[in-house]
Design a protein that fits this description.
By secondary structure, the chain is an alpha/beta fold. It contains 14 helices and twelve strands. The chain has an eight-stranded mixed beta sheet, with helices on both faces. The protein has a four-stranded antiparallel beta sheet with strand order 2-1-4-5, with helices on one face.
C-alpha cells in the first residue's frame, strides 16, 4: 500500500461570479522514500495540491470531493485535532519564502524548541539538543551560534537550511517542498536541492517537490506529474518524461528551456497563456495553445475542442491527450492485423 494515495481530488473556490474548480480529478500516489515532482506554469494548481494534502486551503476554498489517504488514514474528513497530529509531525512543508515562514522576533533556537514542545513531551534542554543536531544535519556552520541568532542575521541560503532543519525536527514521513529555492541564486539552489535529496535518501523520507524548474525535477525526483489548468495531464517516471515527453504541453515546456534554443535566436515559447480557471475552454484546456491541434485534421480538432481527454498509457507514462491516443491507436493496428 502506498504511503500517500490521492484519488479524484476536487478543490473549489466559491467566488462572487460563481464556483471555480482549482483542481479536478487529481490522482497520484507516493511510496515511502519516493521523490515526486509536480511541475507546470504559475496557476496550474501545483501549490493548491500541496495545501490540500494538509487541508490548509483557506476560505472561500474547500475540498469538494475525492480522497487523500495517508498511511491508511483518510485526511479529508479529519478534524482539526487529528490534522494537528499530522501537520509538521508526520507531513512537513517547506514554503517558498523562509522570511515569511520564520518569526522575525524569535531566535532560531526558540522557534525550533517551540515546534518540538508543541508536538512532544520534551524538556527545553532536550529540545535544544535535538534542534542543534538538526542544524548539524543540514550542514549549517557554527550551529550552536545560529541557534541564538534571528532570521534577519542569516543569509537566504542559511534561512532555507533552517527551514529544512525545522521540517526534519519531528522525523516526518513526507516533506512537501513548495518552490523551495525560488529566491536563491543558482549555486545556492543546487546546494539546497542536493541537501534535500541526500536527507530524504538517508532517512527514507518521501518528497513532493513543487517547482516550475524542469532541471531541478530531473536531478531530484524519480516520478513527476505535469499539471495544466488544475488537472494532471501527464505523469510517469521522470527520466522517461524528460527524455521523451508525450503531451504537447510537456513538449512545449521542454522546448522552452534555454539550452533548447539555437544560440543567438529567440527562446522557444508556448503560444498564448494559461486560461483563467473561471473561463476554461471546452474540451482539452490546452487546445487553444496546442501546436498539434493547429496541424490536425477536422475530426481530431473536434475531439480536442469538445471532449476532455481521458488518460492513455504510453510506455510507463499516462497521458491525457486525444492526439497521443490517436497515434497510439494507429501504431497498434499493424500489430493487431499481424496477429490475425
Amino acid at each position: 500500500m502506498a504511503l500517500l494515495e490521492v484519488r479524484d481530488l476536487d478543490v473549489r473556490f466559491a467566488l462572487r461570479q460563481g464556483e471555480v474548480r482549482a483542481l479536478r480529478d487529481v490522482n497520484f500516489t507516493l511510496d515511502r522514500g519516493e521523490r515526486l515532482g509536480i511541475v507546470g506554469e504559475s496557476g496550474a494548481g501545483k501549490s493548491v495540491v500541496a495545501f490540500s494534502l494538509l487541508n490548509l486551503i483557506a476560505r472561500p476554498g474547500h475540498i469538494a470531493g475525492g480522497s487523500i489517504r495517508f498511511d491508511g488514514q483518510e485526511l479529508t474528513g479529519l478534524g482539526e485535532r487529528g490534522l494537528r497530529r499530522i501537520r509538521g509531525n508526520r507531513i512537513s512543508m517547506i514554503f517558498q519564502d523562509p522570511l515569511m515562514t520564520l518569526n522575525p522576533v524569535l531566535s532560531i533556537g526558540e522557534q525550533m524548541v517551540e515546534c518540538l514542545k508543541a508536538h512532544r513531551r520534551i524538556s527545553r534542554r532536550e529540545a535544544r539538543t535535538v534542534a542543534l543536531h538538526k542544524l548539524q544535519q543540514v550542514q549549517i556552520p557554527s550551529p550552536a551560534t545560529r541557534l541564538d541568532q534571528y532570521p534577519h542575521e542569516l543569509s537566504g541560503g542559511m534561512r532555507q537550511r533552517v527551514i529544512i532543519a525545522i521540517a526534519l525536527l519531528l522525523d516526518p514521513d513526507i516533506i512537501i517542498a513548495d518552490e523551495p529555492t525560488t529566491a536563491l541564486d543558482v549555486t545556492i539552489q543546487a546546494e539546497i536541492m542536493a541537501l534535500l535529496r541526500e536527507l530524504c535518501e538517508k532517512h527514507n523520507v518521501g518528497l513532493i517537490l513543487i517547482t516550475h524548474d524542469l532541471g531541478v525535477v530531473s536531478q531530484v525526483t524519480q516520478r513527476m506529474l505535469v499539471m495544466y489548468a488544475g488537472r494532471v495531464i501527464e505523469q510517469g517516471p521522470t527520466r522517461e518524461i524528460i527524455n521523451d515527453p508525450q503531451h504537447p504541453y510537456t513538449q512545449g515546456l521542454m522546448n522552452a528551456l534555454p539550452q533548447m534554443a539555437t544560440p543567438g535566436s529567440h527562446l522557444n515559447q508556448i503560444r498564448g497563456s494559461m486560461p483563467s480557471l473561471s473561463q476554461l475552454p471546452p474540451g482539452c484546456a490546452f487546445h487553444p495553445r496546442c501546436d498539434f491541434m493547429h496541424r490536425a485534421d477536422g475530426s481530431a480538432r473536434h475531439a480536442c475542442a469538445e471532449r476532455v481527454p481521458d488518460f492513455v498509457a504510453s510506455g510507463n507514462c499516462r497521458v491525457a491527450c486525444h492526439m497521443v491516443a490517436e497515434m497510439l491507436a494507429l501504431d497498434a493496428r499493424p500489430a493487431e492485423e499481424e496477429a490475425r
